[in-house]
Amino acid sequence: MLIDKALDEMTKKNKVVVGFDLGNDFSQVSFCRQDQSMPDTVSLVMGEEQYNIPTLLCRRTDVGENVAWSAGKEALKDAREGKGTLVEDLVLLAKNNVSIKVGEEELSAEYLLETFVKKVLAILSAYIRTDDIVALAFTMKDMNTGMMDMLKTISEHIGPPNMQVYFLSHEDCFFQYMIHQPEEMWIHDVLLYDYRSDGIRSYILSMNRKTSPIACFTETAQYPQMKIPDMTGKSETARSAFYKQLDSALLEIVRKNCEQRTITSVFLLGDSFSKEWCKESLKYMCRGRRVFQGNNLFSKGACYGARERVYPSTLSSSYVYLAEDKLRANIGMTCDRGQEEIYYPILDAGTSWYEAQKTFDVMLVKNNAITLNIAPVDGSRKRVARISLEGLKVRGNKTNRVGLRFFMEDANAVQIEITDKGFGEFFPSTGQVWKECLPLEVIS
After folding, report:
1. 156-179 residue pLDDT tens
2. Beta partners for 17?
3. Cα separation of 409 and 109, whole Å?
4. Domains, the chain, with CATH or none
5. How far apart are CA 293 and CA 252, in angstroms?
6. What does pTM read for this prediction?
């Protein structure tokens, strides 16, 4: 028995969770084991911090009749050398679910995205065994239901049979990353700037330490004016003048973000940040704050988020992240079990709307109504919602079985579908279905 337990613990420690930051320009992959303090990020060059994998494919034309693909920097190199056809905008194609012609063949966005994801995850084989992956968490700048459905289907083809698939927004990854860092880094608010080809997006993480669990929030803003144009062919004087102006614009943004709030740490993501041009901005950021620069925070945050789902730590019960795409209340119901009443949780606060779903059956005993308990985590008053099943006669002898399905189609409301399932051959189902919509403003 002790040997079996020891083997089980060893197997558990070898299990791996993977965080995949999927962007239209570039992607990143991080991974960590159950007992690993900090995730590792896949680098294109061993020993170097080359984490950005261009989200590109190249269909090779120099391999005869066989279809061959290269991805990332290799795809770019092959295309430049005339060895094949370059395919770009894989994420945009997937979000719009459109097919494109590559060579003489029409290829779906799903096929192209699956090819890219497979190629990227193949790089992981140098670090881990594919069979050890227990969870894969995708994160994207903008979540899209069609894209998520596509990635769920793709994941069925690329991982072990029991691999779990999760989705986290960049905001959620930021939160997960921070709560896994030393607490002195997030005693007060934390500021993050993500520099991409379309400009800068800011994230401010704050916490309400008066609630239990501690409620965490992010504020985001987009600054397209910070987009850096192609400076090829520009004189040194023109480049210097532009970057001086850019530094001034960044300084103004930072000042506005830091006014009337205490910022403990600042994170700068993206290769566009450079000490060579943002001198005044950096000088201001460093006044009483810790400043960090890198570009793999989101993929690491996705790792932490996936691990908390598979192997929850005390952080999961101590902190709850609430955003516009999150449920801000615990929803459950009180049920009879023998001579006692028990609370049955249905949807948990902090769950992303696109993952909020639950299906189960209940027996109606007293009346034809379903009563839900709603407990907001922001400290506001608990509520009760009562759903009446019009036209259903309750017999009172535990022979009224109904199926309940809770799900969300957007971030604004919880959808509830109740189906009369009858009770075997004695009391066949009437086929009745009741549908209710519970607006989030009522329960938040």
Report:
1. 998 888 999 999 999 999 999 999
2. 32, 135
3. 23
4. 14-171 (3.30.420.40), 175-296 (3.30.420), 329-443 (2.60.34)
5. 19
6. 0.83
